[in-house]
Structure formats: structure tokens, C-alpha cells
Amino acid sequence: MSIATSLYRSLTRHKLFAALNIGGLALGIAVFLVLYLFVRFETGYDRVLPGWQRVWMVDRSLQFPGNPRVEIPSLPTMLGQMKADYPGTTGARFLQFDAAVQNGTTLVAQTMAQVDPAYFRLFQFPVLEGDPATALARPDGIVITAPVARSYFGKASSIGRTLTVVIDGKAQIYRIGAVLRPLPGNISYTSDLFTALAPDATGQRGKGFRTFLSFPDAIAAARVTRDLPAFVKRHPDPDFPVGMVDLAQTRIVPLASVHLAADNVRTGVTVLGAVGAVALLLAVVNYVNLATARAGLRAREIAMRKVVGATRRALVLQLLGEALVAVTLASLTGLALAEIALPFISAIGGTDLTIAYLGANSILPPLALLVALVSLLAGFHPAFVLSRFQPAGVLAAARTSGGDRAGARLRKVLVVLQFGIAIALMICTAVLVAQIRHVQNADLGFARNGLIMAPSYGVAAVDASQRRELFAAIRTLPGVTAVTTSGIAPTGGSYSISAMHRAGATGEPPMILQATIGDRFFETYGVKLLAGRLFDPQRFPTDETRTGTDADKREHMVVVNRTTARRLGFATPAAAVGQSVSEGERSARIVGVVADMRFATPREPLNAVSYSYRDDGGFSPVLVVRAADTATVLARMEMVWRRIVPNVPFAALTVDQKLYDSFYRQDVQRSRLFTIGAILAALIGCIGLYGLAAFDTARRVQEIGIRKVLGASTGDVLRLLLGQFLRPVALANLIAWPIAWVAMSRWLGGFDDRINLSPLYFIVASALALAIAAATVAGQAWRVARAEPARALRQL
Amino acid sequence: MIALHDVSRRYASDEVETTALADIDLTVDAGEFVAIMGPSGCGKSTLLNVLGTIDRVSGGRYLFEGADIAKAPEAELAKLRRDRLGFVFQSFNLIDELTIAENVALGLAYRSIPAKEKRDRVAAAMDRVAIGHRRDHYPHQLSGGQQQRAAIARAIVGEPKLILADEPTGNLDTENGAQVMDILSELNAGGATIVMVTHSPAHADIAKRTVNMLDGRILSSARRAA
Q1: What is the pLDDT of residues A417-448, one digit of tens each?
Q2: Class of domain B30-56+74-223
Q3: How many CB atoms lie within 10 A of CB A362?
Q4: Of A131, A500, A746, B36, which has the fewest CB atoms closer than 10 Å, so is most exposed?
Q5: Nearest to B106 by CA among A716, A728, A695
Q6: In A, residues 694-753, which contact B (CB 8 Å cutoff)?
Q7: CB–CB of A612/A556 below 8 Å?
Q8: What keywords does the record list, in alphabetical order (chain B) (predicted)?
Q9: pLDDT in tens, B74-121
Q10: Which residues from chain A sit within 8 angstroms of residue B161, using beta carbons?
């Protein structure tokens, strides 16, 4: 009988086992495949273009004592200086911003990058038509991507045609010189439109500038890295005051390491990869468990094969062959499941994953490797156990005995392991979901609902008189209850950081974030005043902070938040009111103390902030509106906007949305993927437990018959069986709790605003696991517990 | 002690209905030792299973000490088996995973008896059938005769009023069979009621009454001359 026939009969005769075995394995493989694609996508960032190994990026950051490290842009002059200092160095600069393309009467927002022509030698994008490098040799040349070309010009060639692009309110006409093919989603630095960067790039300071360098190998890069401290001293940043030079750090990092540089991003990818591997492991454990559990049933077949002359080697090969066929079947089913699930996974996980069958990214070679590995892993133990049977003993005895005991112990250990992992995943899911819900609903110190922010209010193309007109018009819109402007805004904005001294205080002065705010800022945000007063320039004209040569000499008024008051050493908010402090060369008087507002990510500690009042809200201010019905007011704001500044695209959204996009979205999406993975892993564990329960109850029909003959009631038998099945699940908590505790403590440690790791999560997850396991085995146990004992005993 | 009136037992499968027992009227008094004989498939074991409440009747009345238990709930039957009945099977039905002592202790597993008393009663039951020296062995390590003695120990450890034995010597050689019959006679002499299915006329002779069956019906019931 060939392997295929043997397997076919074994599958069709034991349909339940076949379904559990192959179904469970297919599910595990599907979870693994989806998460493998995700990890490959994330770790493949910037490795999709040829020559990525030779590209490095200048990475600059600044860290004030007691504050998180912040990324700062590269300097436009840096590339030229590097080329001069390190002969042979090549590279390109990249400056991205939002622009708008004039399409008839409407403006369409697009991302635009100004780059050096050499950029396209470093980043070898696939080209549909034209030559990007020569296209940018002309000052009015532009390179666009295929989707952009299609949206404006349809299917016809767009080379030589023109696009009107509005940058900072000014329209410019560009001629298309090249079209790039659609780009994969995992490229960090790309854009819809590319134009040439002026060689001196004056006026570009402070914007999101990037400098990329090309080195033939890591040794050449290391040579430059060693000299960087000296380089920075030779070419100091003219923006940095002397004291700040030491706070800045300049490094060059390989391009491929940029995407996963942040700890939380890297952890997220690692964890999801681990969930995929764990789901697969659980499925393999199921296969091993069910296969060895059934070993006893196949003992006679194996013994007969030995009697007619099969060697142990031949039997091992046969059983491994069976595993290979089963795993192949499961893998194809898993692949189909993954295909079906991918659109759904992509939608809720915010990813763009596809399965490729051909080409360099084909799934087939890794899948073949997976099949081979899983077959070996899953088939080895059953093959070893089964082929060891001694034929005489097996054929003489009515049933196999003795040897099965060790197998049963192994199965119990594996069930403990499976449920340990499943419970740990359930606890992690509960904590993850609770924390993510917490940060989305936590008190940020201001009423986050009903707030609209319009960052486009502060762009350079909108002048001061237009801003005044916009402000006045929007304030009187129906449905608007309050309006303010400020440089600082939820998720960022413009602000500066400097040390704040309190007269007579000793020790290092705290670094305070200095924000300028316009009229009714605190009132619009709904911030609680803790002591003193808020700004009121009508009653207190000196509240207004003036800029200019002489204005700074005068003491100016500030409102500080509670963290600032505490850092300055005031015992209570009230104690800070009326006190004088100095900020650099200016002196300031604290007129009020307000509650802390969390504008930054929940991962970072609350900032110490000092607010100054300026009538115009300060540098590149953001307009913030409070309204009950945000959707209607947003539409009305856009109408006003188009009337007053028709040449600048209107960009506004609710603060809730902005916070979600910047701080929560990635966590929410990753936690969804994690939750699905965890639920499926638990399901795989249950499939295994169900299979074992089915097997075990079938094997124990006689024993249960005897127990009933001896007077055991249905309840007694049910309790016995459930107790025995659930004991490993209960024991699994011993593994699950410490793992989950360590993992979640570390993860929560990454948040400043976090929930407590309550024992409730552990208890509820464990109780849930027990309940699910009980429900899984109850049917089997109930059936056998209720059977009439005479029937059970007759089966012998 | 027990009385069956017009008892029948039918098994229905998808295609056929088999009548295993029909029109059974049988009374067994306390202290009796009844042997049931008949060819294979005549319904002996079914009758024994019905008497032992491990199989249900399809019709008729089953009086146990005056109470009709033909339609009694499962829990009540379990309690009856636990407190009043003892079973001995041809194929012993010891549990492979348990030691001999643990198998015997199963006879008390569903009663609330202090642990020490349980241990004492298990030891006494094993001594009574001379199997005490094998207490920590597993069933597959024992001979057939020893296994059956262990099974008898399990049946009597609860001191049942009625012992039901289904071909208790069927799997044993002559010598071991004789030992088992001696034990059963002693138990009967000690006051236990015994109903035994057997193929052996010699063993049936040891009983006080022999019931002959054929095709699910009782043909005759003959008391042994004293």
C-alpha cells in the first residue's frame, strides 16, 4: 500500500482527526504566512530599490536634559561640506513638503519633494518613461509618479506636458520630464512630485531637510563616522547657541535601519512576528499530539508491516512522507485562507500586503521551506514513536499498554505549553486593548472632543491680513463657540526650549518648553486654571509679549503649567503666582498656573510649558476652533477659507482625528493584528484540546463504563473528565502569568500615561481560557459520561 | 430481593430490531446463588446487565427490594449500583492505568468514607481473595487468575447485597476457575446473593438454582436438590 493510499484511507476513515489535524495546521500556517508577509514588508523597508546597501542618511537629533530626544533636520550646506572634507563622497538632498496641483479650478493636495538630480542615482526608482536625472537638470523640470500621471493625463504619455503646482501660495508651471512606475508602499523617502532643489537651497533652513550619502561599503561609512565629531566642530550649526552644541548629536545611519529605528516600531514588528511563529508552533504541537495519540490505534498496522518485512527506516520514511503530504495539504489550505483574509487584514491593520507567486518576492520558495521544516518538526516524533513498536507484543495484546503512558505525559506537557502561550497571549491582548483604549480616552488636560485645528492657517502663503480676516470670519460662523491661535498645537507645532531660572534656586535649571498663544487659548481648549489668572490683554496690556530689539528687555507675563511650577520648586501652584523667573536673557513674571495639557504622545512624559501671549498667536500659528458639530463647522470653515485665500489648500481636521493619526493609529492597527493572532492561536490550542479530548474519551470508554458499573453517576464522570482535561489548562497559568507580566510591564513602561497592570487582566484571561477549554471538552465528556455502561463494556 | 415481571429488551439499529430479552419473569430471593446458562447469544449477559441496571429494559417491571426501578432516573441507579451491587466480568475490566490497589479502591471511589477506612477495607478485600501481595502491580503484570481475583476484590470491597458475575471463570484455566468459584461460594455462605452467568455445568452445579435460557426467554428454572 503506497503512502498516498495509506494516508488517504487514514484521512477518510478518521474524518474528525483529519479535519482537526489539517484544519488546525492550515490555520496556524495561515496566521504565520500573514504575519510573515507583514514582517517581511516592515523589515524590507527601503530595501526594495537596487543599491540600497550603499545609501546612508545623516541623522541629527537634539536632547535637552529631562526631555525626550527629538529629531532635527539636516542642514542644506552639509552635503557640500562633506564633499569638500571627504573627497569622493557623493550624495543628494531631499526636502519634502505639501504642495497643490491646479486641476481646472480645484487644488489637489500632493506631496512634493525638492531633490538634487543625484537623488535618482542613489534611489534607483523604476522608470516608466523619460530620465529623472536629466528631467531635473532644467529648473522647471518635474518628475511624477505613474498614479499622479494617470490622474491628470489618463493613459496618454505625459512627457513634455505641463503641471501647475502651487507652492506656498505661488503657482509655478513645470514640464514633465520623467514618470516613475508605481512604487511599493515600503519606501521611507519618496513623494508624488519631484522638482530640482536650488544648489544653494537658501531659505530652506529649518524645514524637513534630509541629506543622503553614498558609500561603497560600511568601512568607508565608518571612516566618516569616526571623523563626524570633528566635522561638526569645523562646521557649527549657525542656529545653535554655544550652550546647545553639546546637546545635539549627528550620526550617519544605513538607510535600511531608518524605518525600524524607533523602539516601539521595532518591538511592534518583533512581537507580531513572534505571534506568527507561536501560532505555527501551536499548530505543530497539535499535529504531534494528535499523531502520537493515534499511534496506539495504528499499532497493529505498523506491527503487520514489520512482520511482512518493513525495516524501521522504511517505516520512518513512510510516516514522514505522510506528514509531508498532510503538511502540504495544510499549507495549500493555509495559503488559500491567507489570500482570503489579506484584504480584511490590510484594511484593519493599515497594511498593504499582497501574496506574490512569481518574481523575487514569490511566496513559493519560503512556503516550500516551511512545508519541509514543519513536516520534519511535526512528523519526526510520531514516526519515531510508531516505528519503535515491537510487533510480537502489539499483535499478542488486545491493546497496546504501558508505552502509551509516556506519550500521554508528553501530550499533557504539550497541552500545558500550548495553553500557557494561549493564556499569555490573551492577557497581553486584554492589557494592550485596555491601554490603547485608555490613551484614546484619557484626560489630556483639555476637552479633546469638539475641537478643530487648521494647520494651513499658519503656512507662509497666508499673510497677516488674511489671517486676521480668516479669524474674524470663522469666529462669527454659526456653530463656533470659541476660536484661538497658537504656535503650539496638539501633536506639535512651533515652540522653543530653554532653561528657566528661579531667583535664588540652586542646581540645574529645568528646561522649559516655551509656547506662544493667542487670544482665549485656555478658554477654547477648556483648560483648568489652578492659581492666579489667565491672560487678559484688555485689562492687562502688559500681557502682550512684543518682539523686537527693545521689547525683550521688559519683563513679560507668562502662564505656566503645573509641571513647570513643580520643576521650578514651588510647593503649590499658588506659590508660583507673582514670582519672577528668567528665561535666557529675558525676565518673566508668572501670572497664572494651569493644569498640564498633553499635546505630545502618551509615550512621553508631560512637558513643562511656559505660555506667552501674542495677539497673532506667534510663529506659523495653528487656528483652533471649538464647535459642537465639527463636521458642519469644518465645511463652513472651508467655504470661508476659499473665499479669503483661494490659492492655498485648506487643511483642517478635528483634534481627535489628528491625535489618532499621529499617536494612536499605529498602536490601534498593530493591536488589532495582535488580537486576531492571539484569538487564532487560542483557537488552534482549542482545536488541539478538542482532538485530544475526543481521542481520550474514545480510549477511556471502557474505564468510564467500569466506573459507572461501580456506581459513578453521570455527574461524577463529568467532573472526573473535565477535571483531568482542565488540569493542564490550569497548570498553564504558571507559564502564562510570568511571561505576560514581564512582557506587559515592559510594554507599558514605554508609556508615560499608562494603566496599572491589574491582576484582574490575569484572572479574567485565565478564567476565560478555562471556560473556553471546558466548553471545548464538555461535549465529549458529556457524551461519554451519559453512555449506558453495558454498551461501553460491550465495545471491548 | 429482586423480581422481573414480563421484562423485554430490544435493540434497534438502522435496519433491524433485535429482541435480546422477551417475557422474562424471574424472582431471586436474598441469599440465593443463581446460575444462568444457555448457548451464546441467548440473552444471558443482557439479563445480567439488566439486573445490574447497567442496561435499561424496553418493557416490563423490575422490582428491587419491592421498588420498581425500571424507569428510575440515572442518578438513582448509580446510587443503587454504588451501595448494593457488585460486578465481576469475564474479561476482568481492570483499568490498565491503575495499580491493583487503586483498581480495588475504585469500588469505594464514589462513597464518602474516611480515607483510612477506605485503605483498611481495600486491604481486607485484597486479603480475602489472596491478592494483597500484588497491590502495587499493574493489571498487565498479573496472570488471568490474579486479575480476576482482583476484580472480585473490587466487587466485594463495598460489601454489596447482590453480586452479579458474568462468566467469571470464562477466561481462566481449571485451577484458577475453581479458586474463583470457591471465593464466590464463600461469599454466598457469608450472606451475599449471587447471580452468575456461566457456560460450565460444573460451576452451575455449585449454585443453588440454575436458570436455562434460549433465544431471549427463560426455558426452565431448577433448584438443586439439597
Answers
A1: 888 988 999 999 999 999 999 999 989 999 98
A2: alpha beta
A3: 12
A4: A746
A5: A716
A6: 702-703, 705-716
A7: yes
A8: ATP-binding, Nucleotide-binding, Transport
A9: 778 888 888 888 888 888 888 777 889 988 988 887 788 899 999 999
A10: none
